[in-house]
């Protein structure tokens, strides 16, 4: 601080810095500096993880969806467990759509056919899990383990598919 500025701190108050009058101004400028404690290590870690999660939020879509489905199926189980029969019928929809698509038009490559078959298998397994979780409750250890395995499989498949289909800006131009 220069010689002309004065610092005044009242007991229990934030320090106040008085800046000398400027030319053409009648009132003095008063700057109040609050004393904030530095963030703790835990707070810094939480902020870093939050920023990283927000930056990479598209990569975690399957995990977010499956995490949301876990309490939803629990609530459905508590309200009306017979909804599981409707979910069980819905579990057959991905396989039916795959068969219909294969009869209508065959995929151009074996890799496309393999990806479609894997996607149908995962979608059928997830829909079957929803039916079982709505009927018996997602809190059962075997259903919870199945949920974790399906979430992991969906997340890995999502990341692999994103990596394989990513086109850089240099390649596309």
Topology (elements, then pairings):
Blueprint lengths: L5 E3 L7 E4 L9 E4 L8 H15 L5 H19 L4 H7 L2 H12 L5 H27 L4 H25 L3 H4 L1
Helix pairs in contact: 2-5, 2-6, 3-5, 4-5, 5-6
- For the terminal residues, how far apart are their CA atoms? 56 Å
Helix content: 55-70%
On the 0-100 scale, what is the average pLDDT?
83
Question: Quaternary arrangement of the chains shown?
Answer: single chain
The ordered string of helix (H) and strand (E) elements is EEEHHHHHHH
Rg over alpha carbons: 29 Å
**What general form does the structure show?**
elongated
Strand order of the largest sheet: 1-2-3
Number of helices: 7
Note down, in words, how this protein is organized.
By secondary structure, this protein is mainly alpha-helical. 63% of the residues lie in helices and 6% in strands. The chain is built from seven helices and three strands; from the N terminus they run E-E-E-H-H-H-H-H-H-H. Strands 1-2-3 form a three-stranded antiparallel β-sheet, with no helix packed on it. Strand 1 and strand 2 form a beta hairpin. The radius of gyration is 29 Å and the shape is elongated. The mean pLDDT is 83.
